[in-house]
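## retry 2 of 3
previous attempt timed out at serialization; input unchanged, resubmitting
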Amino acid sequence: ALGWQGSQIQGHGALVHSGADKGFMGLVLLRQDGTQAFFALSNTLGVRADGGSWVLDSLNQGLLQLATR
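## retry succeeded, writing output
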């Protein structure tokens, strides 16, 4: 709902949300059991010709590294 998606990270349920507005991009990851929460923000809006985003890819990679420690 409202852009949130369910996911599994190392066997744990997680809620993930990403978005962008006026040159900013952000990503939030919340473990469903409430034990961890992470967020990453950038003041860079980076969208490729295919509609993907190198900025969100970088934020996602960084949060996944934190969440799987």
